[in-house]
Design a protein that fits this description.
By secondary structure, the protein is of the alpha+beta class. The protein has one domain: Beta-Lactamase (2-Layer Sandwich). The protein is built from three helices and five strands. The protein has a five-stranded antiparallel beta sheet, with helices on both faces. A hairpin with a 6-residue loop joins β4 and β5. α1 runs antiparallel to α3.
Length: about 120
């Protein structure tokens, strides 16, 4: 799988410090960039645990059968950063994440960028 278009789209978002596509079954980084120098491997492993936990919680709440309820994104707000994680709709078991500088990023636009990147990847398959 190639994710250049997804990463390019995410990396051009104002305030992005790091962004990546990760397999949350294995925690493996599939592609990413870190303009700020953050360690993508560490971020991938840590964010994988968060996504796995949320997916399990939703499955417990709604059951594992097909439901209209699905995680759109997960937001973690820190003092100086936002962490935005989005399970891809186009590929089961894969998620995208962005680390954003809270002072310069626009959270609504970042969420929209993740959604567009997911849909564009799906259209390219």
């Amino acid at each position: 799988m190639r994710f250049e278009g997804v990463i390019e789209k995410l990396a051009t978002t104002k305030g992005v410090m790091a962004c990546a596509v990760v397999d949350y079954e294995s925690g493996m980084l599939l592609d990413g960039v870190s303009p700020s120098g953050m360690d993508l491997d560490v971020l991938s492993v840590c964010n994988t645990e968060i996504v796995r936990s949320e997916v399990r919680a939703i499955e417990r709440l709604y059951g594992e059968e097909e439901t209209e309820e699905a995680i759109e994104d997960i937001l973690i707000s820190l003092h100086k950063e936002y962490y935005l994680l989005r399970p891809m709709q186009s590929i089961k078991g894969v998620f995208m994440f962005m680390v954003l500088d809270r002072k310069t990023a626009n959270l609504a636009l970042a969420r929209r960028t993740l959604e567009i990147a997911d849909h564009q990847y799906q259209d390219d398959i």
